[in-house]
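Researcher: Please translate sequence to structure tokens.
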Amino acid sequence: MRRFRLNGWQRFGIVLSVLWAIGAVLYMGAAASREAQPVSVFYRELCIRNKSDRNDFDFQPCYAEAGNIYQIERTKWSTRALPVALVPIHRVDRSLRCSRPCALGTARLPTREVSRCAGS
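Model: Translation complete:
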């Protein structure tokens, strides 16, 4: 069985893709927190103001609901992290699958061409 080897640029591309994936997840997590914070703070302050106007000083429900809103808003942003992180990995994987040597020569051909070379 022949061993699959990567050239220097392919290894570099894989390392860069892994770094991109890690960075994208970290960046999108920070962006999610940054975007969710003002929404939850606004709700909490509005709720506290309304309760104070009614002379109801039990603010615990306001804090709990603001926490729920924060989690919901953060989740909306966090779901966007996966596609952003995986785009370059998909590209590298696709380029590796399409560059197999042809059975009739040393030229690199797309996968569909390899099957034609092999006579299948």
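Researcher: Any highlights?
Model: Residues 99-120 have pLDDT under 50 and may be disordered.
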